[in-house]
Design goal:
442 residues; alpha/beta; Rossmann fold; Glutamyl-tRNA Synthetase, domain 3; three-stranded parallel beta sheet; three-stranded antiparallel beta sheet; 19 helices; 12% strand; elongated
């Protein structure tokens, strides 16, 4: 069986790390099994969904390295949902209900007072055609519920193992609002059937929905896909990521200069038995990550872990990967990149570090070091220079002044770079050349 997965975001805002987790886990599963990846825009909420948000989701996926094989939009597939609606009505599985939200609230409150579960009592099934006509004459418009079988629905979750959802303890779900618009559930099932989805991989907050959806698959005569429910990613405080709460978006991370691979690794390997560490590519992660490695416990995002990982990726980045980005910044040179990359936490930091080589640099000279630095200038070796030049120079200075350790090296670093920290001086010296060093020494 060929694997076909889908990721189905609602374009009602920019996606965040919590959204990126299932987007990438589906991608890894498709890559691991040479399968197909469908991006489905669940844009039936016409009041909140926008094309700008949809375009933003595509942009974020592309930045992360995910290339869908197919893009579909639910707003363009209404005829399929209408046909499924009519089929379920004809079979008696979808029935009209006329209660207002206030009436339903009162029913739920009454049930709680009686110690009963606050599930829908199916009163609408007792309405006659005359009853319905009388209600509609008063301006009532029905919402439509799916009549559940009310049974234990069993399935083997590809992440969590054997699961049972008893739909007898659930209200018949509303599939169509009173205004005729569809809620998430029916279009989702219809699309999964139509697109031949074999695996639905999503957050564990959807486990209870799965019983309902399996019953709808069966009622429509569709093949039931395998389901996998992963643990949810939370923020550093243990709260779930949410568009509504304004969680930091993938676009925000991109604007702040994070590497897409760092975001992908943190979003997916957090809460698994694999370490959050550098990988060469998404495919390298897909080869390693098996769903058996996903923890059944929480997955908490650690910003410090992301920062450390981002730096490690940059420190190991080959010049071939960095070169186009350097060129766009007006910078060139493999030797410069190999020397300075160890100091980076974000790629754009290279612009500031490159000044150590290209200038301008404001030397820092303490009054007590002025004579020492004048002697250093006089003892600066002639060119050509290589990796041994730094040792030759400092040995000569040590012999002439008796200085060693920090007293020897720090004044030279401050004069040549204007900084207390930075790259290895023996390599920097070669890149600078004798003239630049003479210009920076007092």
């Amino acid at each position: 069986m060929s694997v076909i997965v889908r990721w189905a975001p609602s374009p009602t805002g920019r996606i965040h790390l919590g959204n990126a987790r299932p987007a990438l886990l589906n991608w890894f599963f498709a890559r691991r099994h040479a399968g197909k990846y469908v991006l489905r825009m669940d844009d039936t909420d016409l009041a909140r969904s926008t094309r700008a948000f949809a375009d933003g989701i595509e942009e974020d996926l592309h930045w992360l390295g995910v290339t869908p094989d197919l893009l579909v939009r639910q707003s363009e597939r209404t005829a399929l949902y209408d046909a499924a609606r009519d089929s379920l009505i004809a079979d008696g599985r979808l029935y009209p209900c006329y209660e207002t939200e206030d009436e339903l609230d009162r029913k739920r409150a009454r049930a709680r007072l009686l110690g009963k579960p606050p599930i829908y009592d199916r009163a609408a099934l007792s309405l006659t055609e005359d009853d319905k006509a009388r209600l509609e004459a008063k301006g009532r418009r029905p919402h439509w519920r799916f009549r559940l079988d009310g049974r234990p629905v069993q399935f083997v979750d590809v992440i969590k193992g054997a699961q049972t959802v008893n739909t007898a303890s659930m209200s018949d779900p509303v599939l169509i609002r009173a205004d005729g618009s569809y809620l998430y559930t029916l279009p989702s099932v219809v699309d999964d059937i139509d697109l031949g989805i074999t695996h639905v991989i999503r957050g564990e907050d959807h486990v209870s929905n799965t019983g309902t959806q399996i019953e709808i698959f069966e009622a429509l005569g569709g093949a039931v896909p395998a389901f996998g429910h992963h643990n949810l990613l939370t923020d550093a405080a243990g709260q779930g990521f949410s568009k509504r709460l304004g969680s930091q978006s993938i676009a925000d991370f991109r604007a702040e200069g994070y590497e897409p691979l760092a975001i992908a690794i943190v979003a997916t390997l957090t809460g698994t038995s694999l370490s959050v560490e550098p990988y060469d590519s998404l495919d390298a992660i897909a080869e390693r990550l098996d769903f058996s490695m996903i923890s059944h416990g929480s997955a908490r995002f650690d910003p410090a872990e992301l920062n450390a990982l981002n730096a490690r990726l940059l420190h190991a980045m080959p010049y071939a990967d960095a070169a186009p980005r350097l060129s766009a910044m007006g910078l060139e040179g493999e030797a410069m990149w190999m020397l300075l990359r160890e100091n980076l936490t974000r790629f754009d930091d290279i612009a500031e570090w490159a000044k150590l080589v290209t200038g301008p640099v404001e030397p820092v000279v303490s009054p007590e070091d002025e004579d020492f630095l004048k002697l250093a200038k006089a003892l600066l070796p002639p060119e050509p220079w290589d990796q041994d030049t730094w040792g030759q120079w400092t040995d000569a200075l040590k012999g002439a002044t008796g200085r060693k350790g920090k007293a020897l090296f720090l004044p030279l670093r401050l004069a040549l770079t204007g900084r207390h920290d930075g790259p290895e001086l023996k390599s920097l010296l070669v890149l600078l050349g004798r003239k630049a060093c003479l210009d920076r020494l007092p």
